[in-house]
Each structure stands twice: as structure tokens, then as C-alpha cells.
Amino acid sequence: MLKLEKVKKYFGGIKAVDGCSFAIAPKKITALIGPNGSGKTTIFNLISGILKCDSGRIFLGDKNITNLSPHKISNLGLSRVFQQAHLFDNLSIEENMSIAIDNEDMKFVKNLLGLNRISKEKKQKIKEALNKVGLEKSPQHLCGELSYGQKRLVELARAIINPHRLLILDEPVAGVNPKLREKIIKILKDLEKAGETVLLIEHDMNFTFSVANRIVVMDAGQVIAEGTPANIKNNKQVLEAYLGD
Amino acid sequence: MFLQLLINSLIAGAIYALVASGFSLIYSTCKFVHFAHGAVVAFSAYIAYLLFSIWGLNFWLAVILAIIFGAFLGWLINVLVYRPLRRKKSSSVILLIAGFATLIILESLILMFFGADVKTIDFIQTAEGLEFFGAIITPLQIVIVIVSVILFILLFLLMKKTRIGKAMRAVADNTEVAEIVGISAERIHSWSFIIGSAIAGIGGILIGLEQNLEPTMGTNLVIKGFTAAIIGGIGSVPGAVLGSFLLGAAENFGIWYLPSGYKDAIAFVILFIFLLFRSQGILGIKKS
Known about the structure:
CATH topology of chain B: ABC transporter involved in vitamin B12 uptake, BtuC
Oligomer: heterodimer
Low-confidence stretches of chain A: none
CATH class of chain B: Mainly Alpha
Distance between the termini of chain A: 35 Å
Mean pLDDT of chain B: 90
CATH superfamily of the largest domain in chain A: P-loop containing nucleotide triphosphate hydrolases
Strand order of the largest sheet of chain B: 1-2
CATH architecture of the largest domain in chain A: 3-Layer(aba) Sandwich
Distance between the termini of chain B: 44 Å
């Protein structure tokens, strides 16, 4: 589903990502873990097109998405949740969702004549997605007025309804309360059952081991281990990377 | 006297709002001050003059072509001047200077092609003013106010009800996130320039019908539009419209007490007051 081949990204003399290669299988939840500064978020920014690779290639399915602009990558089937909630604060919850559900049709005349209104089915999908995260009662609320936890849920719901083949989540449970954490775990398990492909970054190891089928471990911009959660737990190199010598 | 000043305020406000709304729309999505907007206003008025008064085209056809020309000119300025600079990650100050340079170049082109002397579009001969409780308003001035109000309602509906309007608000809110959910920010920038410049074109033609044409007419109008946008809250289209009417009122009621030569000074004093004490304007949100 997603394949990285010898991807490099340097910031001046800092090797943020240094020849990173890995692939993730479809219909699985894969976790990308590693100590702070190991290059995980940089990898997400390279996959989603926010940063450009210095070298190497990234494939989404069989399509080379290396250095394409973020909107093109999104329209090819990538949906993302950021580390900090990234919403359109001046738009309502419903507007945030409706923008994501069908973003490619911006034909001006169609817009002016109102020929591309969001269909009833899509409205229903938005309702269901909001229902899933428990925000169906207040779709007209401005996102800027929501609490941190609610913002994270809206962003997750928006990423889910944004047409995609791959969902990438950057620390989906960072800073959320235990109740919300359980809710997000349930949503992810439901996504897995529905056959979604997910790549996530998370520092919370209990969370990671409870949801991921496969784990990729990074350190100093390189992949140091890959395998099932059970394999990774006992991997000496991984323990050294996390705990030091 | 009060009613006459109120009517004059409405007319001035409507004219400023036609410039400020497009200007503010472009600022909100692109996040830089597009001073060349003034040249689009002036060029559109001159094209209407060229097509109707010199070439003798049907007036309404000339108006439509002049509006299309205004929209095209705005789009072209974005493609030729701003887009290459944005791709080089130029700061908004560089873009502002480029906008000023474009304004001067385009005004010089008007000077070159049409000359420095004042021009008039003679479609409506000076009509008798209508009297309302002792105040005078001409039919053209009524048309200016009505057309402005219709345009603002249409612009509001476009921004609120259509997907392209929502996408514009999304890009205005957070360009990076808009790209992540699949919206091409570049395409939205183009639409902002086209729509904003078309409104400027309509404004230019109406102003051209009401007043005389001169090559530097755009500079004065864009400065007033900018002042109105600051008062209302830069980047907020409803704010720009509100700011325009307030500016029009301040200027016209100000000269009740001061000589009329102080009209521009009143606008700039208000601009300084807002920049010093409420830089986010009336409807703008203060950035922390």
C-alpha cells in the first residue's frame, strides 16, 4: 500500500531521515515508533507532501507520489491527522467535514449554479462520522470554540470521511483523557475491521501494542527494526534505542 | 443637511466597499496586500471608456467585456507577478512591493495609451437629482448603491453556500490543512483574484460613470479600500464592507465641521487610530 525507498531528508547538517526504506501492508494497522527526534514526523511530512525529499522515492499503491504537492497526494488517497489538532477554526464542524468529503470538484460554473451541492448520501455519511465520535449534536459549532479533545475527534472524523486508501495518524491519543483514549482505540479497531489501512505514530506503547498489527521502529532517521508487536517488544536493538546503553 | 450627508456617506461607502471587498477577499486567501488591485479598478474603467466612448460598442456589451477584462487582468497579475514570487517563498513584504510596482507600471500604461487628461464615459448625461426630504441623489448614485448591495449579497452567498466559497474560507483559515484535505491552494488563489478583480471591475465602471477617469484614480481608491479593510478587520470580507461604509460616513460627516479638503486626512487619521489601538479592526480576530 505504501512503500518508501531510501528516502533522505536533511535539514542543514541534521540528517532527519537518512536512507529510510519500509513498506506497509494493506488492511493492517502499522505503527511507526522511535525515540524523540528519530524522524517519524518528518517521514509523515514527506509522505503527505508538506516536505520535499532530498532523494529516494515514495509510492502510494503503484503511484509514485514523491514530492507531489499535498493536495495531489490527498486526492490520490492519503488522509492525515496531525500531532496537534489542525482544523479550520473559523468553519463549523459540518463545514470542516463537507470540505473533506468531496474536495476535488471546484468547477466555478457548477458552484455558481449550485449543481454540485453535497448529496444526501454524503450528508448522511458526515452525520454517521460525527455520530461515531459523539459530536452529532452540535454540527454548527465553530471548530475554534471546541475543546482540545473535541478538536482531535473532529480531525479524526474528517480524516476518516476524506476519500482515502491510507490513513496516517500522528500521535492520535497524545494529550487526551483516558475516556477519549478508549474511544479512539475503539474507532481504530473498527477501522481495522472495516479493512482500512492505517499508519500511525504514537509514543504511548500500551496504546501502540494494543492496536498495531505491525511495527516499524526508527532511530536517527533510519529503520532499525520491523515486525509484529511481540517481536519488537523483545528486540535488543529497539530496547537500546529507547533506553540507551 | 444631515440627510444629504447620510446619502453622500452611503454613496462613498458603496464605492469604497466595491474596492475593499475584492481587496479583502484576495488578502484573506493569499495573505498579502495586493495594491495592484487599484490598477485593476482603473484599467476596467478605461476599457469600458475605450469600448463604449471611443469604439462605439453597445454600452452593456462594453460593460461585460470590461468586467471580464478586469477579472482577466487580476488573474494575470497573480500568475505573472505573485505566483513566481510565492513559489520562491518570498515574504509578504516582497509581494507588497511587487504589488506597488505593478500598480505603478499599469498606471503608466494607462497614461501611455490614454493620456493624462481627464476622460468621461458619457453613457448617462447629467441627470436631474431626485429629492428626498431636501436631500439630493442622482439616479446613477441610486444604481451604485443598489448594485453594490446586490454584489455584497451575492459575494456573501458565494462564500457561505457554495463549495468554492467554503474552500476559499478554508484556505483563508489554514492553507496547509486545506492542501492536506485535497484543496489546491493555487487554484483557490486564482479564483480569489478572478472574483475580487471582477468586483473591482464593476466598481471601476460605476466610479467611471459617476466621476471622471484619470490614470491615478486606482491609487486613491485602493488606499481608501485598504483603510476600510483595516477598519473592518483585514481579511474579513463583511468587515471590509462595514469598514467602507464607516469610512464613507466619517469622511462625509467630518466635513460638516472641517473644510472638505480634509476628507483624505480624516481617512488616514482613522487608519492610524485603528492601527495603533485596534489593529485587528472591528470584525477581525486578534492574533495572539
